[in-house]
Amino acid sequence: MAAPQYAILRFAKYKGPEISGIEAHNERTKEKYASNPDIDPSRTHLNFHLIKPERKYRAESEKQIAEAGCRTRSDSVRVVEALITATPEFFKGKKRAEIREFFNEALEFIKQNQAPETIISAVVHLDEKSPHMHLCFVPLTEDKRLCAKEILGNKKKLTQWQDKYWEHMVKKYPDLERGESASETGRDHIPTRVFKQMARLNKQHDKLAELLSDMKFTNYKERSAQIAAFLEKYIPDVAAMETQMKKYEKFFKTADGKQKALEKKNDELTAALEKSEKESTVKKLQEMRLHSDYERIKGILDRIPPEIIRAYTHRDSKTQEVHHYR
């Protein structure tokens, strides 16, 4: 039996400084992407735009907001990103022209439901595991108000977005099935890149633990210098992860209470259950493990001798994050 092919549409809202981060990822403006090993730089030239940005994302959003005469607050959503794709099985055997046709069709769907002139960029990535499109727009309503909440709505409206997206795409691609919305899975979507960041931090944690465990009287000075140097990357990376974890704080507050029930449910899953349901449960468990991993990679800082911390801060006096964790 062939694996199901799902139409996938997800939204993310961005308010300020993080906009430049998603722009760097979407537009591939960085030379290296250590935090995302799935990016294959030798294939980046295959990426293509359906809509090219005329200026920086933040600058374009501020321009449109000003022209619309909208008032903003520091916590106003200025950019909405739609991630548009399908499960990998859908793209198997498809040529570049067929892939472009699929994303053009998806772009038409967005244009029918959001003013085309508000779209900042629509770029298709072919240099990762599965083709996908990042489409960013300024959340201006038809009557020129800045209101992402009205456009994306509550859980019910997000479900309607999923319905409409599938109904639009299935006309041309009848094998596509409707994907799950965040409201149906009972969770907000945590991007894959966050899990990749944590995987990298876990490796760094293990290396740091190895250095700490190997400290002896005979090599103390050498190991101290190595650990202080290692902290120059580790502590900023932990600080960056803290920013991500705060973003999903609401999810993690309810996660602990659900973990045992989900683990029990996962144990009881049988072959009779749909693969998609099993994957959804496993995904939830992965998200909760993310929280415990974060506590682990942060906690090791308490094992570092104070004199090594002082050596680290002396090496880079600008780094202040360490005081936050001790």
UniProtKB/TrEMBL annotation:
What is this protein identified as?
A: MobV family relaxase
Name the gene for this chain: mobV
Origin species, per record, is Flavonifractor hominis
Q: Which InterPro entries match?
A: Mob_Pre
According to its UniProt record, which protein family does this protein belong to? Answer: Belongs to the plasmid mobilization pre family.
The superkingdom of the source organism is Bacteria
- What is a single Pfam family found in this protein's UniProt entry? Mob_Pre
Q: Which Gene3D superfamilies match?
A: 3.30.930.30
